[in-house]
TrEMBL record:
Residues 223-431 form the Amidohydrolase domain. Signal peptide: none annotated. CDD domains: Bact_CD. NCBIfam families: PRK07583.1. This is Amidohydrolase. It holds the Pfam family Amidohydro_3. InterPro entries: Amidohydro_3, Metal-dep_hydrolase_composite, Metal_Hydrolase, Metallo-hydrolase_Enzymes.
């Protein structure tokens, strides 16, 4: 941390229950009210922000505060929302690496590790480690997908329920099931849906079938999809789906999901993740699919780091595409688009630390979310918060909890050019005294015997 931020951190620790943060910049799109001053070409507005009794008391034009702590033009963002993660499988790379980095290799490696190692204690230790990192980085809400296969599913959801209770008041946690679509047929599907409903969860699946990849839709795809929707309707469950995560042009489940939601008049929120294959489809088909998603009210969440890592990976061959979906076209059509972490240090992605600031930085570069930056900062905050039904998260709003991230970086090129260790996380207006967990804390999970 820079000397200036160290000084500010010390001053905040002694600031009392009410204070002003002066001379700050805020992305105007992350304000829940009209900006109190002119917005610059990067979408930033200069403000003074008042904190009192742990909440945001005022957002005023720069120069309004009679006194207070100066950010010297540095930025303030709200706590961020990570709407698609996998904390039950996170951090298994040291004992179960992906042999070739491919999607198929990841599936095989995770299946082997899950069958041999995933006790409640093992999952909870790794998931808690991941949440401690997310918390220290400034994440305030997170949705994780839980591998939900019988007979493993009851243990995974028991682990999550305990973890959600432990983390109440620090990170708002949600969970969604994930299993291949065919797993939801018959009695197993009803049992999985019941576990999700009893746990206050989200019904999720992956549009590939057991043992397969995301490629041509099978002949019985539609009956299985209708069965999945029916399970959700019977239990009034929200949906969160892994869709078309490949470079195969036969992977066209996103269109069928949107059409099915419209046909059935499905009323609950639907979030679809990945949707990679759409960027390789003919323009006419892609436009039709996006139109149907907008009409059905589907939100799309993009995982740029993981998808660029996995997609188009062929040993000895340079990748030809980035593996991500049509985010600009989706947003232009009115489809809400979020970005998220996805996997961390597991066979699907060997890296990552559940740092949404890293996700914003890399997404901006990979997806060209710049020139102009416009309202793309919402994709890590207000947009996923709305998709997750967390309308009190993701915006800087008078009366909201002062859960904020303070940056030394002033303009966007400063903010996005460094890893941003130079940040201060505030929770309820107080400096968050949380350190990133040491990797060595997990060593006991990776020793044999």
């Amino acid at each position: 941390m820079s000397q200036a931020m160290t000084i500010l951190r010390g001053a905040l620790a002694n600031a009392g229950a009410a204070y002003w943060l002066r001379d700050a910049r805020v992305p105007a799109c992350l304000l829940d009210a009209p900006p109190p001053g002119p917005v610059d070409r990067e979408g930033l507005v200069r403000v003074d922000l008042s904190v009192a009794a742990g909440r945001i008391a005022a957002v005023a034009p720069a120069g309004s505060a009679p006194d207070g702590l100066s950010l010297d033009g540095g930025q303030i963002w709200p706590g961020l929302v990570d709407g698609h993660t996998h904390i039950d499988k996170g951090h298994i790379w040291p004992r179960m690496p992906n042999p070739d980095g491919t999607f198929g290799g990841a599936i095989g490696a995770v299946m082997a590790d899950r069958g041999a190692k995933w006790s409640i204690e093992d999952m909870r230790a790794r998931a808690d480690f991941a949440l401690r990192a997310a918390h220290a980085h400034g994440t305030v809400a997170l949705r994780t997908h839980l591998d939900s296969y019988m007979p493993h599913a009851p243990n995974a959801w028991a682990m999550f329920r305990a973890l959600r209770d432990d983390w109440a008041g620090r990170i708002t946690l949600q969970a969604s099931s994930i299993a291949p679509l065919d797993r939801f047929a018959g009695e197993e599907g009803a049992a999985l849906a019941d576990i999700v409903a009893e746990s206050g969860g989200v019904l999720g699946m992956v549009t590939r079938l057991t043992g397969g990849l995301h490629d041509d839709l099978p002949a019985d795809f539609q009956p299985m999809l209708d069965r999945f929707f029916a399970l959700a309707e019977e239990r009034d469950l929200t949906l969160d789906l892994h869709v078309d995560e490949s470079g195969e042009t036969g992977a066209r489940a996103l269109r069928e999901i949107a059409a099915t939601a419209l046909k059935r008049g499905f009323k609950r929120p639907i979030q679809c993740g990945h949707c990679c294959a759409l960027s390789l489809h003919p323009d006419e088909f892609a436009a039709e699919t996006i139109h149907l998603c907008a009409e059905a009210g589907i939100a799309v969440i993009v995982l740029p780091m993981c998808n660029m890592y996995l997609q188009d990976r062929v040993p000895g061959r340079t990748p030809r595409w980035r593996g991500v979906t049509l985010v600009h076209e989706m947003r232009a059509a009115g489809v809400p688009v979020s970005v998220a972490s996805d996997n961390t240090r597991d066979p699907f992605y060997a890296y990552g630390d559940l740092d949404m600031v890293e996700v914003v930085r890399e997404a901006t570069r990979i997806l060209h979310l710049d020139h102009p930056f416009g309202d793309w900062p919402r994709a890590a905050a207000a947009t996923p918060a709305a998709a997750l039904g967390l309308h009190d998260h993701g915006l800087i709003r008078v009366g909201a909890a002062a859960d904020l991230i303070l940056f030394r970086g002033r303009v966007m090129t400063e903010l996005l050019s460094r890893p941003q260790a130079d940040r201060i996380v505030l929770r309820a207006g107080r400096v968050l005294d949380a350190e990133l967990p040491d990797w060595r804390e997990l060593d006991h999970l990776f020793t044999s015997g």
